[in-house]
Amino acid sequence: MAQPQQTESHSRQNRWSLQGMTALVTGGTKGLGLAVVEELSMLGATVHTCSRTETELNECIHHLQMKGLKVTGSVCDVSSRPQRQTLINTVSSLFNGKLNIFVNNVGTSVLKPTLEYNAEDFSLVMSTNFESAFHLCQLAHPLLRASGAASIVLMSSALGIVSANVGTVYSATKGAMNQLAKNLACEWAKDNIRTNSVAPCFLVMGNSWTK
Fold first, then answer.
1. What is the reported pLDDT for 166?
2. Is residue 171 part of a domain?
3. How far is it, in rounded angstroms, from Cα 136 to Cα 126?
4. DSSP string, 58-73
5. What pLDDT shows up at residue 1?
6. Would residue 38 count as lying in a domain?
7. Is the Cβ–Cβ distance between 36 and 105 less than 8 Å?
8. Which of 95, 130, 170, 188 is catalytic?
9. What is the pLDDT of residue 201?
10. Sign of dihedral through CA atoms 56, 83, 131, 167?
């Protein structure tokens, strides 16, 4: 006899539950970040996210809350050190000093030949991608440790693993992020904090990639 098809919500419940868990997802108002926010929320987690743009953030939060999801948000440019500190302070206050999941999703790119990068390009990509990931992990560590069982996910890129003929600085930040994940996985295992990086890929038309 054919089995009845499972609903989407029932399928999620059969996989696992994040009920009672708390999560911070940076840059969760569009694209991959938004998909992560929705998935974590639908699995039961209470999620806080951030965006540089207040209007975009408010529209996204309203949309998610109308779907019955437990999501809050705050304005934050993660390339700013003071704003990163404010973000973590907000998360600590919302979640009573504990955080189970930190997804470092924010990233930017300036895809140019190496000789065309200037100091501003380098600073923007480095501060947004790698410096922010490193600092936010530092700031979030006490909250993650306090939860007793925590997970960090760093959103890297295939360009941090393979090579391409464009985007040297972007690729370097993603390669550094992969190494950061390896080191933190070893260093913070004693605090019951798992650390992983994931490496999505996008198609760069007209540019060759090699392993």
1. 80
2. no
3. 14
4. HHHHHHHHHTT--EEE
5. 44
6. yes
7. yes
8. 170
9. 80
10. positive
The tokens describing 186, both together, are 């070893």
- Residue 63: CB atoms within 10 A of its CB come to 14
Q: Residue ranges of the chain with pLDDT lower than 70?
A: 1-15, 202-211
Domain span at 141: 17-109+128-154+177-201
Whether 70 is covered by a domain: the verdict is yes
- Assign 173 to helix, strand or coil: helix
Token pair for 175: 């390669």
Q: Give the residue carrying structure tokens 């694209």.
A: 31
Contact status, residue 45 vs residue 122, Cβ threshold 8 Å: no
d(CA 33, CA 9) in angstroms, rounded, equals 20
Any domain includes 9: no
Q: Is the pTM here over 0.85, yes or no?
A: yes
Catalytic residue check, 170: yes
Please report, for residues 13, 57, 94, 144, 180, the alpha-carbon distance to residue 127 in angstroms, rounded to integers and kept in the order given: 38, 22, 26, 23, 15
CATH number of residue 37's parent domain: 3.40.50.720
172 exposure class (CB count in 10 Å sphere: 0-12, 13-18, 19+):
middle
User: What's the number of domains the chain is made of?
Assistant: 1
User: What span, in angstroms and rounded, lies between the C-alpha atoms of 67 and 83?
Assistant: 29
The token duo for 81 is 């050190």
